[in-house]
Amino acid sequence: MTGWLLRRSLQAALTFAASLIVLFLLMRITPGDPLARLEGDVPLSPEERSMLQRRFGLDQPLGTQLRHYLAGIARGDLGVSIGHYPERVGSLLRSRAAPTLLLGGTVLAINFTLGAWLGVLQARHRGRRLDRWLTRLSLAGYSMPSFWLGLILIALVSLRWRLLPAAQMTDPLLPADAGALTRLVDVVRHLILPAATLSLVTIAGTMRYQRTAMLEVLRLDFVRAASARGLSDGQVLRRHAWRNALFPVLTLFGLWLPVLVTGSVFVEYVFNWPGLGSLTADAIAARDYPLLMGTAMLASAVVLFGAWLTDVGYIILDPRVRDP
Amino acid sequence: MRGGPLGRLLAAAWRAPGGRTGLLLLLGFGALATLAPPFLTDPATMSDVTAGAMAPSMAHPFGTDHLSRDVLSRVINGARISLVIALVAVAVSLVLGAGVGMVAGYVGGAVDAILMRLVDGARAIPRLFLLLLLILVWERIPLTALILVLGFTGWLGTSRLVRGEVLRLRHAPFILAARSLGASPYRVLRVHLLPNVAGPLIVAATLGLGEVILLEAGLSFLGLGVQPPTPSWGGMILEARPVLITAPWTSLFPGLAIACTVLAGNLVGDALQASLDPRTA
Amino acid sequence: MRRLGILPALAIALCAAPATAQRPADHGTAVIVFGQEATLPVPLYLRGKANQDAADLMYLRLARVGSDLVTSGDRGFEPELARSWARRDSVTLAFELDPRARWHDGRSVSARDVVFSFERARDGKTAPQHTVLLRRIESVAAEGDHQVVIRFTQSYGEQLYDATRHVQILPAHLLESLPADQIPGSSFAQRPVGNGPYRFVRRDPGRQMELAAVPEFFLGAPRIDRVVLLLARDPEAQLNLILDGTADALESISPISNIPRVEARGDYRLVPVPTFILGYLLFNHRAYGDRSAPHPILADVEVRRALAMGLDRTRMVRATFGNYSAVPQGPVAQLHWIRDPDMRSSRYDPAAAGRLLDARGWRDSDRDGIRDRDGHSLTLRLSFPGTSSARVHLAAQVQEQLRGIGVGIELVRLDGPVWAERRNRGEFDIDFSSASMDPSPGGLTQSWSCAGLGGSNVAQYCNPRVDSLMASAILATGDAREAWRRVLLAINADAPAVFMFAPTNVAVIHRRYDNVTLRPESMWSSLWRWRVTPGRQIARDRGSP
């Protein structure tokens, strides 16, 4: 087990290193100049300027630049942000991580509970009207651009019906002495619409995956045996199928992380949610290449971590499964 | 050669109810995008700019946008752009993915290991970020470049798929037989291996269609994709934001168009996938 | 089951108001929506309107121009840091500072602060654009603690204006030991100390800035105790903050189609405020990004005139602003006293424009709809900030109209800071500029004279004849209108830009405020005189400061 864990972790680390190399290559082949914004109003100190030049300047020899780039990352130094100067990329990422974790975590929770439950429902009623309609609805949600859905929800729920706030994570005017409960309620009110948007867009995949997995499970011999013994569908599910059905949940975790990361860029932008997604949108607007690189690195780290977690989860659930 | 599996798959898709809807939608959009534009008003014409956005009417079935341009015309012209971008980008991804996958799977060894490690590394980076890093500092990206960049970022999964198939079949008897008869690697790949991966490739392509359309719309919404005055669905939604409430039709129709097209792609892809693996039907 | 138990608690939490100290019935809070972030609201070092507006709440000038906005002469100015002034001779003004004026850290505002501030303003390194404006000041000297004497290089009409308008006074005791280039990164910049009715409390980067009233403010105790400058870059987000009641004031509704939505909310008042804003399509006289070479297309004055004639400005302005904008006829905004209502900077005549372009050799030889000459097509890039919905709206119309005369326009939509940088570096063909102009016509020298070439004159427009006309107009005593008219005619003849809009802002102010004045040249600077109508306080007015 430990040996497997070590091997798997090493593999993840190597893949992450490959991601970093790929990001570096992208930077070299991009047709524009990543440091185009360096002149002008941004008052960098000479040290910062030369550091950015060494890392992102395209006139540097390949070897030198790669060296500075990797060394910097190893040190944890991702450079200074051009658009948010003088903040450093690393500290910007840290400061904006929590809201995205909150949003992403909520969406994952909704997917795992509501989505999984609906998927199971579909499996149980396979082929019947409920199944077909759920498929259509979820596919429709999956096909909508997340930013458009977000705008529609804002227009209806916030602006027309005035039920929920239209933007940001907190009410900026909460008095400084507001209690914890007030703050919590405030954040929840702001969280509902962005979480709903991302969930609507991702739930289709979850439902479908869960449905497929549940159908697979229902076919397994031991479940059939139980069914043959006279247990009802529900009892069969509860007793035997659930544990095995947790596998899809884990798979989904690994699968949905990239989608969440991408979707959060648009949703946070539209809802002005102060997380990493809107930070990425800021970087885009300000042509802030160092910051964009930083968010891309973080995104791939998150995705790889999710995949690693998934595999670890598999092992814990069923030691017979091994890395393919 | 590819017509065989392709034809079979399309027939299978047609038979499935969802797949039929999807195919009809796609064909419908394609037909409209190709044939309708000459009959519509010029999407850049501002008919009465002082009147601003006008609600749907007989003269303008989808209304006009904030610059009094006909929304129906812009949606259909936007369809043309979006569909072309999506089709060509997916084609580029297919070619690249199949190519890299076959090389990696067939050659094996260090080449395979390095290639696949890089591919895995790149796959860990969400596609949107790959796109952004490539086009962020590009002033006013030309359409061709946008398509190429979209295609260039979409082949990673496909290559893994193809490589897997090639690995599986590499030592199959019929392949070994072909090789012992002196067939060149190229011939083996093209004639013997390719038809076997055609099915999954086509499924990946149709699903990829929807993904590209959403990405392209997203990029245009961020101001990075198709540049005005060329109409694009994402760009239309961006421009419609200031009048979201006062002129909801300006963002409604482009969004619906995106959703319908992506849905169509997904329906077809789903149906194809189901026909390949009926247990999940 | 546990979940149900939380609901009553939540309900109570939502309804309960925090216990507060009793506040006077006419005191309150003001939440103002800003479209840009005020990251450095320190006078002389600040750039951009947001910083200027924030600084106007924290820093005073010696005096301010009167409500008639006439910048020439000595009459009409209102005392601020200087409680009186006297003219000693035709080139000397003596100011007596109000002894009650204090810095936010308690120290008294003294003549040394004034001398220091002018020194920094005039040194050419700190704020080059100010240095240009202050070039007619010869010396600034202190006479004792509360007396400042300013000498000018010559006699001219706007001496008092120049002495008071451009320099907000900075605290010498906190800043004189810091070299000028270290101030933006210093702790002072993080927590500025001023002398105005509001002091800095804190800033949440990317979200808001909070200011608190200075109760001992010497010109009168502010009744608005707390001011929050809320950031929302997006015009739609700005409006939402008003519509959902989070904010109390917004400088300008944009686009105007949103006006009915605010009207539908009965608790807000719409106040049209004419502005000093001027929007114009600026032609680059030098090549894109290369100031050493003339622009291959736009260096030709006939081409520029033709472009101006190809634009139906009245129609475009009406479409974008409705009735809330005038069409400027020269580089003058609505409120400039030198404006001549009968002047026309260009007329709309696409046929004549076409003929003019034909005459200059630009014909459509390859029948693609765009004119060309010697293999180069008549295509120009129009840069504009995506954050200005008016300019976004207009840019598309400009593109369409110029297409009608065979000129190809590529729209380059940029984010605010990126646009500003490109502009400063001369990386544009046509820049859709918008400036909040100085009330003084002397401000024209910044952008439209050869002297402004290193600073605001990013298009490198330089006509020595215009410069000399401007110089004589500035020096004219008495009624200078005729002299300025000649300047405007000369500039218009060169067609360095197409003057597109001079808007009237439609400001949104919550109805509960009383005694509200909105000064066009500095919107929120009278905030300290506002009060809340007793009986109409809302929750945040009563909240703790």
Layout of helices and strands:
The complex is a heterotrimer of chains A (324), B (281) and C (545).
Chain A: H1 2-29, H2 46-56, H3 62-75, H4 89-124, H5 129-143, H6 146-160, H7 180-219, H8 221-228, H9 233-271, H10 276-285, H11 289-317
Chain B: H1 3-15, H2 17-35, H3 71-107, H4 109-124, H5 127-135, H6 143-152, H7 156-170, H8 173-180, H9 185-221, H10 233-240, H11 249-276
Chain C: H1 2-15, E1 28-34, H2 49-58, E2 63-64, E3 78-79, E4 82-89, E5 92-97, H3 111-122, H4 128-133, E6 137-142, E7 147-152, H5 159-165, H6 172-175, H7 187-190, E8 198-204, E9 208-213, E10 224-231, H8 235-243, E11 249-250, H9 259-264, E12 268-274, E13 277-283, E14 286-287, E15 290-294, H10 301-309, H11 313-321, E16 325-326, H12 350-359, E17 372-373, E18 376-377, E19 379-385, H13 389-403, E20 408-414, H14 416-424, E21 430-436, H15 444-448, H16 464-475, H17 481-494, E22 497-510, E23 513-514, E24 531-532, H18 539-542
Parallel strand pairs in C: 1-10, 1-11, 19-20, 19-21
Antiparallel strand pairs in C: 2-3, 4-5, 5-7, 6-7, 8-9, 9-10, 11-22, 12-22, 13-21, 13-22, 14-15, 16-22, 17-18, 23-24
The span between the termini of chain C is 40 Å
Rounded to the nearest angstrom, the distance between the terminal CA atoms of chain A is 15 Å
Quote the beta fraction of chain C: 15-25%
SS class of chain A: mainly alpha
User: How much helicity do the residues of chain A have?
Assistant: over 70%
Q: Report the CATH topology name of the largest domain in chain C.
A: Dipeptide-binding Protein, domain 3
**Total domain units of chain C:** 3
Question: What is the gist of this entry?
Answer:
Chain A is mainly alpha-helical. Chain A has helices at residues 2-29, 46-56, 62-75, 89-124, 129-143, 146-160, 180-219, 221-228, 233-271, 276-285, 289-317.
Relevant terms:
heterotrimer; B: 281 residues; MetI-like fold; 0% strand; elongated; C: 545 residues; alpha+beta; Dipeptide-binding Protein, domain 3; 3 domains; four-stranded antiparallel sheet; 18 helices; 23% strand; globular; disordered N terminus
